[in-house]
């Protein structure tokens, strides 16, 4: 599985581009394939304005996933538009995720895309299951920046417990603290007492405790370095396509200022012209007195640019002769001063990251242990966010596009879901019901059905399945008269269509009860020979992960063998949808902490699963918190193979399972997809009568995948 690292800047002027390039290069040095992703980019005159992407493209250093072009509209701040934006980001991301060991995502600066910068940083990190690295620069208000990181987690990131925060990078840090870098890293490992620190004790005394409480690990401290934040003279003059008159020490200098020569030049103090380029029109050279030449020579001017120059003009000038034997770098251009200033308007005075020396400097300050951990734990990152899960559902189902029958064709939610599924290519949905009534309902809902939306009038096809129903149920005394009555039920009719291979799957339950949906399936489709019962599961789509709950709809009080069968069926279903199963057998007791027949049943079921399927990761009995929260697992079940990271929870009975799923669904506002039936020869899935359009769409997609 790929690792996803997201670098999020806190504050402005933090050196985002330089740090991104250096960090990616450091990761590449671990023999990992890295690609870069800036999810949304502002374009100006059809040109990409993102500095990091432009540097990468210029040097062909990393593969870049194509970003989404930012277009401001009135709907930009609409929550539905944001959801659509996230869907597009997921689509772009998922296309390349499996091709690279690490996907490096660069977050947005606080004002980069307006007031939604932080919101989108949160949603992207959560949706793509990214490990967050905060980037700050060292200031006198360092503690305030740390507080901002926490605010970012606890206020903007309202569900911070679902986020993965790798740590913090502090950039542009002062020399006093950098002198103690080794002490700093040792301190983080509790090898040095805080009280023994001298120079940087004031800085770290409270901050370290703050970091420890909030579990923010320092991944790098990068010193303030002029070569990391200034523009080399060579890049400046290459941009202007200038002609070299005197090369001087061109490779040793970096630009801080640009100064225009005028008659008041001699009044400028040396400290104000440190590392400056002096622009002089060639016409003014002849008016420059020796006092000015001495002033320039003895100042901190590092280069001179002569404008309005022709090649033959400067060869015999006093100005040129004066500087010929000095280390002053002198260039010339044919453009006049005004034209040069106009051209410099589009020059990027930000950090130029093409210098590999500077990138290497950044790499040297990144924590080696953290970089090594990226290699060691690639396979352990198996969680899947709900957005990736649903994207995968749509992707897999659209590849096969099976025929799914919907016997409750006159329900507005069913019509809407079928329309969307048809439009997105998720499935070829067939609405079973009166065509005129369906069209009228669709019209009221603002849905325009067309020839691609299949509608079958049950009155026309009922008689086609009477004989087959008699054959299937003759051992139960089924007669033609009785069969004629039964096929008037659309659920029974749809089940017969599935049994006869006229469709590939069935979804029902928006109007009908679970019993009315499942009973015909058990009678006509029947169970697989390899299972002892039909069970159900729910996919609980939490913000950054998927939990599977079973059984929450069918089996009232399963015994130990049946509970084991439910666990095995659920694990196999999870694998079908790309989820690596980690099963927790839920009870009111963790291991030996409680007693009773229910605990004994769960313990026995766990043993049976381990014996029948040693390939599965399973533990029990476990309480819900010990199964799902690592911090609790450390206390209650320190030796558990689940370690508080279960993604399949098997409940001891229907009362527990149904209650928990509904409580989580409603109180946490979680999308619950199901009940998904397991153990039938062909896919039949039930809906909750409170199902939303979204629930129905996902259930149709799941049914499609089950039918493959």
What do you see in this structure?
The structure is a single chain. With 708 residues, the protein is α/β, with parallel strands linked by helices. Helix content is 43%, strand content 19%. The strands form six sheets. Strands 5-2-7-1-9-10-11 form a seven-stranded parallel sheet, sandwiched between helices. The chain has a six-stranded mixed sheet with strand order 26-25-27-24-23-28, sandwiched between helices. It has a five-stranded mixed sheet with strand order 13-18-17-16-15. The model is unreliable at 175-210, 266-272 and 351-355 (pLDDT under 50).
SS-based structural class?
alpha/beta
Strand sequence of the main sheet, in spatial order? 5-2-7-1-9-10-11
Question: Beta fraction of the residues?
Answer: 15-25%
Sheet bearing the most strands, described? 7 strands, parallel
Rg over C-alpha atoms, rounded to the nearest angstrom: 34 Å
The helix tally amounts to 30
**Span of the ends, CA to CA:** 24 Å
**What is the helix content?**
40-55%
Mean pLDDT: 76
Shape: elongated
Number of strands: 29
Point out poorly predicted stretches: 175-210, 266-272, 351-355
